[in-house]
Structures are given as structure tokens and as C-alpha cells.
Amino acid sequence: MGYEIERKFLIKGDFKSQAYKSFRIKQGYLSLSGVSVIRVRVKGEKGYITVKSALAEGMLTRHEWEYEIPVVDAEEMLNLCEEGIIDKTRYLIKAGDHIFEVDEFYGENEGLLIAEVELKEENENFERPEWLGAEVTGNVRYYNSFLSIHPFKSWSKL
Amino acid sequence: MGYEIERKFLIKGDFKSQAYKSFRIKQGYLSLSGVSVIRVRVKGEKGYITVKSALAEGMLTRHEWEYEIPVVDAEEMLNLCEEGIIDKTRYLIKAGDHIFEVDEFYGENEGLLIAEVELKEENENFERPEWLGAEVTGNVRYYNSFLSIHPFKSWSKL
């Protein structure tokens, strides 16, 4: 089992020029129960299935188990997923000792940009790049699982 | 992706003396949505996560993807599972060209015995051992996923 401690931010400036790597991600959810989230992901040429324990709003730590699976399996399982498939490009950007992952969303989530940084401890310090906007950690609206059901373009109706 | 074609039967006689192997299975369900079933299983010393597409009553074929995972992960994930954990011993019995799996359930499903045989084609013939009882293929009551929510001991109340 792994733990995941991450903080999420909006974006307020150009970040793409600082990315050292980028790849396309398509993912969906086989389950979004109150207790766990089961995600299927195609990331570049690889496939993954991930089980995450549910995360209460405001908490930073959740349990996570991720396994690499054949990419063809992941593509087939995306057809079983409930609600919308998330389609995005992920940009990796170094800042001090950390790597920020910035997701640029497409389709029904077009217009949304989210940066995430993974920490080893909840109180860990990290360098904040100048393009980093307001923190949205723990705000369920910015969870990919929420976005798959209530995409960004539908938010004005929420 | 694999396909699973199996037929299920009740038991009407002694089968244990014919078993060439047996092992304990504990399993639970991370998700039981209308579209897919996600099962976590500890089988002897090994762990598995399995995704199955939903099966309409009366159908014999479903999609299935199974991955071996660390047994400690599977044990931890059983704590996330919804509803009841299924606990049973599985006996393997050869009959002609096929292997019957007979499950003897414990706990809330004590008293229930189910035999399954996996086939390559829906019309495939197979030898029927003398202890094989009535066929219950496609009857959702005998799905382990159903038993985890409505265990055998509660059936008189259904």
C-alpha cells in the first residue's frame, strides 16, 4: 500500500515553457463509491488500474494501490467506466526538490488547468513557481473523479 | 481480456473424497455497480484483483480481467470492501476433461455448497459427477457478489 499526500493549485501564468516532459492521459472510473475509487488509466503507452480509499474533504492523505496492466486491457476497461472519460495532457515541471504535475484538460473539461505536487509529509515545504495560483487542495470539485461526473463546462449550472 | 463461460450447480452428495486439492478463499467487492464488479481475493498465499463486466441473468459469458497483486495489498483492500466478506474453501475435482470447483461457504453463508465448471464454449459437453445437483447457472442468488450482500442464512427473509 502507498500513501498519497498531494496539494493542488490553480494556474495563473505560463507553465508550458518550463515543462521537461508531457504525455496524454485518458482515464475513467469503474467505481466511485463512498469507500473507494477505482480508476483505469491509459498514460502514454502504458495501462494502470488504481484503487484509492475515499478522501474526506480537507484531508491530504489517502491510501492508494496502483498496478501496471496491459494497455489493451486498460483501453477495453475504459468502455466499462461510468460517466465521462477524463482526457488531458500532463506536463512535468521541476521546482526545487519537487516535481509539479500540471494537467491541461480537454473535452468537457476544456479550460481547466490544475497543478499537483506530491509531498512526503503533510507539513513539507516546497518552492512555489510564479505560475502557481490559488490552492484548491481538498476541494472535491477539482478531483478528477468529480470532474468525470460534473465536468468543468457544466460548473456554471451547479 | 478474458472471457468466462461457466455453469453452476448445487451439490447432492459427497464430493470431498474426490478432491485432489483445496484452499481457502477470502474475497470482497470494491464495487458492485450495474456495469462492472471489482473483486479483491486472497486465495491461499496469493492476492488478486479482478474486474468483471456485469452479467445479465441467463447469460453465460462475461468479460473478465484478473491481475495478481501482493497478498498484503489484497488483505488491506478487503478492509475497504463494501458489505460482507465471502469466506470459503474451494475443492478442485477432476471429471473427464474438466475440473469442477466446489465452494463450501462459512460464516453468514454456512450451509451453502456450489459447484462450477468453466467451459471454452457455451455448448461444450462435460461429464456430470454423481454428486452434481440442480443447475443454477444465471441465477443471481448464487453469485458471490449477491451472497456478499444477501448471505445464504438471510435467504428465508428475502
From TrEMBL, chains A, B:
Annotated catalytic residues: Y29 (proton acceptor)
InterPro entries according to UniProt: CYTH-like_dom_sf (IPR033469), CYTH_domain (IPR023577), NeuTTM/CthTTM-like (IPR012042)
Residue ranges of coiled coil: none
Domain named CYTH: residues: 2-149
One Pfam family hit: CYTH
The organism's place on the tree of life at top rank: Bacteria
Name by which UniProt lists this protein: Adenylate cyclase
Source species of the chain: Fermentimonas caenicola
